[in-house]
Amino acid sequence: MVIEFEYKREVGFSLIEIMLSLILSSIVLTVGYQMLILGSQLNTRTETLLAANAIAFAKVQEYENKTFTNIPAGNSTTPFEIEDFSTQMISDSGGFINSGTAKVYSNFEPNSGSLKKLNVTVDFQYGSRTRKIEYATFIQLGGVGR
Questions:
Q1: What is the number of helices (H) and of strands (E) in the chain?
Q2: Residue pLDDT, tens place only, 10-30
Q3: CA nearest 90: which of 100, 105, 77, 75?
Q4: DSSP per residue over 22-56, as a string?
Q5: What are the residue ranges of helices labelled H in the chain?
Q6: How far from the centroid of its chain's Cα atoms is residue 146's Cα?
Q7: Phi then psi for 9, rounded to 5 degrees?
Q8: pTM for this structure?
Q9: DSSP character for 76?
Q10: How many CB atoms neighbour CB 50 within 10 A?
């Protein structure tokens, strides 16, 4: 007497294959989501730095277009604050800067009555850290010097 067994091959995925694919896809999605969050944070930081930089540079250009006599200056050792544009900085930043200080300082260069040094500083909060951008240029009696 011969007994024959007939095997049926079922088509589909086993439970182990399904579990492995779920684990791998969850790892890939988690890493992708973390990279998306990191990219968003980096973009916000870059936009904030660019806004502060643009505001400071625009202020330097504004003063470079003024005449030598229209720019007040302190003595050669102590810079003189000639403008505080902090509220303008916050409003011009497009919402990227919420608090900080922005000031323009000027003083005569030592041993020179015809050369003023101009400093523009922008201090602002980003997260828990304070960032600072500073530009400096020289204004000569006959024009701009760098």
A1: 2, 5
A2: 777 889 999 999 999 999 999
A3: 100
A4: HHHHHHHHHHHHHHHHHHHHHHHHHHHHHHHHHHH
A5: 15-64, 86-92
A6: 25
A7: -90, 115
A8: 0.74
A9: S
A10: 13
